């Protein structure tokens, strides 16, 4: 009800003052924020007929700066598959689309993710959460920050914990627990 009143006020305001590009600033009083926990598995295919990762570009750096097997300044496009379980035939619930940047310091490889996790089933069908975080691959359980969201996850904030479930040269399967506060 309160929200409807605001919408009416905002509407009247925008009609009466058309030269302004902003509305009056109102007290922030949204509905009670909700917290949702998600648990799912990310399936990433590095090669094969349907890879979910593709290299976009890599800087031409000298070999002395390039001692890592995955060198600094490589940019990848990602479209990983989200499933309810680690098995091949687990139900597909969405995908994680984004950019990954490989940041290798002297000995270790770190990744920087710009990622949108979108869901296609259940009550979050059509909604997505945005993550922007470093992902230090040498750490067993990595924490990624949730910085926003769309649809039911509008205004989301939170964090994800990610752990490799299995990893070989062709397939990476990771387990994620995500805690999201949203409206
Ligand atoms: C890469 O860098 C090396 C050394 O600076 C240079 O000789 C070479 O031409 C560069 N290659 C390309 C494709 O720019
Ligand atoms: C860096 O090293 C990797 C792995 O040895 C190699 O694939 C890549 O081509 C190298 N990049 C440059 C710019 O030398
Ligand atoms: C890479 O390896 C070379 C030879 O082992 C070494 O001299 C150089 O310092 C290393 N570079 C970095 C950035 O670790
Ligand atoms: C990098 O690896 C070398 C050889 O394994 C080791 O001596 C060195 O301390 C490592 N450096 C860092 C910053 O971990
Ligand atoms: C998800 O939403 C789309 C678009 O509204 C709809 O076409 C689709 O059937 C929905 N899927 C499920 C599993 O509810
Ligand atoms: C996710 O939560 C489940 C249940 O609490 C736990 O067993 C699992 O180890 C957690 N995984 C990660 C990556 O945090
Ligand atoms: C890599 O792991 C996947 C998923 O666990 C498995 O299906 C595949 O056979 C493995 N490939 C190799 C070469 O071990």
TrEMBL record:
Gene3D superfamilies hit by this protein: Allene oxide cyclase-like
Signal peptide as annotated in the record: 1-19
GO biological-process terms attached to the record: phenylpropanoid biosynthetic process
GO cellular component: apoplast
Primary localization: secreted
This protein's UniProt keywords: Apoplast, Secreted, Signal
Taxonomic superkingdom: Eukaryota
Locations listed in the record: Secreted, Extracellular space, Apoplast
InterPro entries in UniProt: Allene_oxi_cyc_Dirigent, Dirigent
Function noted in UniProt: Dirigent proteins impart stereoselectivity on the phenoxy radical-coupling reaction, yielding optically active lignans from two molecules of coniferyl alcohol in the biosynthesis of lignans, flavonolignans, and alkaloids and thus plays a central role in plant secondary metabolism.
Quaternary structure annotation from Swiss-Prot or TrEMBL: Homodimer.
UniProt record similarity statement: Belongs to the plant dirigent protein family.
Protein name from the UniProt record: Dirigent protein
Provenance organism: Gossypium hirsutum
